[in-house]
Structures are given as structure tokens and as C-alpha cells.
Amino acid sequence: xxxxxxxxxxxxxxxxxxxxxxxxxxxxxxxxxxxxxxxxxxxxxxxxxxxxxxxxxxxxxxxxxxxxxxxxxxxxxxxxxxxxxxxxxxxxxxxxxxxxxxxxxxxxxxxxxxxxxxxxxxxxxxxxxxxxxxxxxxxxxxxxxxxxxxxxxxxxxxxxxxxxxxxxxxxxxxxxxxxxxxxxxxxxxxxxxxxxxxxxxxxxxxxxxxxxxxxxxxxxxxxxxxxxxxxxxxxxxxxxxxxxxxxxxxxxxxxxxxxxxxxxxxxxxxxxxxxxxxxxxxxxxxxxxxxxxxxxxxxxxxxxxxxxxxxxxxxxxxxxxxxxxxxxxxxxxxxxxxxxxxxxxxxxxxxxxxxxxxxxxxxxxxxxxxxxxxxxxxxxxxxxxxxxxxxx
Length: 392
Known about the structure:
This protein is α/β, with parallel strands linked by helices and 392 residues long. The protein contains 10 helices and 19 strands. The protein has 2 domains: 94-269, Alanine racemase (TIM Barrel), CATH 3.20.20; 275-391, Lyase, Ornithine Decarboxylase, Chain A, domain 1. It has helices at 7-17, 27-40, 57-64, 75-84, 100-109, 118-131, 167-176, 195-216, 242-259, 271-274, and strands spanning 22-25, 46-50, 69-72, 91-93, 112-115, 136-142, 152-153, 162-163, 181-186, 189-190, 222-224, 264-267, 278-290, 293-298, 322-325, 333-339, 348-356, 363-366, 388-391.
């Protein structure tokens, strides 16, 4: 799915952007990924988009007509999701530190609030009493699971959610405060590429959710198993084989409905839907040799695409897939390292990558850049202008 750009398309995008650096996200690639998932997943499964992956308004408007809902984690994301056309009934609001104004906005909008503590439940109840409203409150579960397939983990020894063993008491608190129990939400890890690991995780979360609701004596109307599906960026990574994941979800969906006929299974991928559809385009502005290493200096970097430089979700940074578009192709290739324009040693886009021989003015395309790009980067660092971002 990680489609390359032809030179003609690239220069048309450059004309649209006006200058480098910029992000361009392909609608067809996004639609292709969604269509592939739809063909594999249970028909009744709620496929949501995690807005944190890319809150670009044009992208959200595109997705609002193609997926079943959105996951947001701030009032700003909530505003963008509603403005893009997502129905309030289909939006879930997660996050461990929701401010009072955000809880009030979520209650006013009528979205599903995924509470992450008993203190948050009490605050929601207080806001509902003040506003004369009720709220749909799901509970974010934090299971004590060992996850080996990802470095980014949100379960076990973390501050996310409510410890699974405390969920029956949290459900009882909801009922005592007159708040309807709107389901359970799991999100245990991110950037997972091992299908067997994901299947095992989904199985354990579903087992736990059914046991918790049986113990609490409540119906389970909604079970969100999260997202966290990875996309490969390094040469030693293989694409996730989603077929066995989907096959298992069919079995879990049937099992869930057998126990709770009105229940709906949900997923909320972000990166998996849009990362490979996006490209970050920058320009070579200098080249030099330092102690035997050839460096290309480009006008884009960590301030706009932190995921491609520091890569906090990896033990060791890896080169994102990249292509160089020289003004005049010579057939020569070379091994280079690539740095951005910042006065910071972490501003390195690639080390020892083989590309066509580059000259100042050539365009560099960093693929797999549709998720956690500009919005997840320190765009104000050193005062460089923000990149243009658009769909094509």
C-alpha cells in the first residue's frame, strides 16, 4: 500500500503546496485500506478512526463518510470531529486527564465518554447534575497483560484507565450515580505487527470483559478492542497479516453476541488507516562530507516529522522508506545520511541509506508519513514555518 509518487504527480503536488516541506495524503490509498478492512471484518463491527493519528480537517471530512466513528482525546479533536461530520453518537472521548470544560463539552455533545478513573466518574456525575443531562459512560480497562509485540504499551504498569480488577466497583459506582454503563474500552499497545500477538490480546481482553460484566451483573453494549495495528517502516519489518486478526474478530463477535445480543464490537485504528497513504516532501539544500560520511541537508526534519527522526516507539531508529527525485538523473547511486535544518543533533532523517546521487534542489519524499506527522511534532521549534498539508 506504500505507493510511490511519479515525478509528474510529485511536481503537481509541489505546485499545489507552493514550496517545501509539505505533506500530501492520497485519498485512494486511504480508501483502499478501508475497503480491504471492510471486506475482512464483521459487517456489524464499528470501525472508528483515532483522530490523534492525523487531525487534518480535510482528512477527517473524507473519513467521516467512510468509517463508523471517531476516537478523540481532547476538546479540540472533538470540535474537529463534529465539524468534519462525525455523528456525536459515534464518537468516543478517551484520555487520562480530561479537564472540566472538556467533560462538559462531551456531555453537551452527547458523545460516549471513556472514563479512566473513579474520580473522573464522580466529576462526570457532578457535571451531569449541574447541566441537567446524563452521559453515556464507558470504562477504559487496564488489564495486567504482558505484551511482547510492541514497545509502546498502555496496560499493566501505566497510568491509563482503571485496573481491570477494580472495574466491577467502577460499574457499581456508575449505577449508584445514575449514569448508564456504555461499555468497555481497551487499548493496550501500539505499532503491533505480529498477528498472533494481536489475536491473543483480543482474546484475553474479550475473556476479561465478559467475565467482568458477568460479575457485575450488567449487559455489555459496546466492546472496543482499540487499534494499535502497525505498519512497517524498516527493511527488517514485515507488513501485518490482518487476515487471521479479522478471522478471530468474527469468532469474538459471535461469542460477544451470544452472551450479549445487543452488543457491538469496535476497533479504532489510526496509523493503520492513513500512515502509508501519506508522504512528506522536502528539498535538498546542501551536501557535504564529514570524516568520510556524506550528508544531505534538507529543509524538513524533526520539527515537522518527529516520527521519522527520534521514533520514540522503536528501540533503535530506522530509516523510513524514501525516494529521491533528482532534477537530472545520472544513474549514479550513493550511500548517504540525511539531516534536517535544525540546530539539534537528533534532527536526522536517515543514516547510511542508498539513494540516487543528490544535488541541492532535488526533492526527497519520505513515505509512510500519513500518521503522527506535523501534529505530533514540535512545529514551533526554532521558528520555521509550518508545512502545508493536503489530500490529493
